[in-house]
Amino acid sequence: MVVPPEHRRPRRRSGAAIGNDRSVIRAIGIVLLWAFVVLNVAWMVWMVIQAFRDTRSILADPWGLPTSLDPVNFVTAWTVGDFATATMNSVVTTLVSSFLTVALAAPAAYYLSRVENRLTNSLTMYFVLGLGIPAQVIVIPLFVMLNEVYLTDSLIGLNLVYIGVSMPFTVFLLTAFFRSLPLEMEEAAALDGTTAFGTFWRITLPLAKGGILTAFVLQVISHWNETLLALTLLQSTEKYTLPVALISFIQQQTYSGADWGGLFAGLCIVVLPMLAIYLWLGRRLTEGLTLGMGK
Question: Where are the transmembrane segments (predicted)?
């Protein structure tokens, strides 16, 4: 019996054809990804080059090369822009807030990863919901609350805000990482009479050093580059962090004449330390983040 053409079922595409389509899409994605990487690297190189040129030469030839490696622009940004004080504020604020965030999030994440009941499930969902709240929404409530306890224009208040804002992501990341760790060693420690805190301190933390380092570095990068909260909560020049000091330096140039070389040098001071940290720890950071998110 011959089936008319209009009643024939369309043939399914073969696995080879689907595989070819996926290969083409993957190839296009790789090309676009590398194009984006090359564009960003080229921008970084151009920024560093312009940091060694003066304003007149930059405006005359934006794509030119410096005639010397005179660090005068960095000296200008460091002194006129008061980047020396801002750098110290950023280093202290970033390290303190990142360390305290991880120190508080690690025990909470360990408990949530090992105990499953209604309370822990609700707490886990509470932290997950915190990931969806943008910082712009809570700026005004935070300012009002800190003003009530006299912690506006204070690095202590800024540290508290950074810790609170960073807790949802850090707890979420470390909870997933702790769940990826084997339970055999913890069970053996429990049979030997080790307390829950002793097990966490002596066994789990050493095993989780990759995830702890990943969480710490991510918080360092985030807090170092954070601008909105610092710009809102800090008013005194001596309390400025680097991103706020850079904005203030740009505003100064508006009235005194734009010093483009100094501005590029200021950008280098803000960006290059975090780039160096990522190049140093990038592979370990990626491995820790992938392992934690994969569970």
Answer: 27-49, 91-112, 124-144, 156-178, 199-221, 260-281
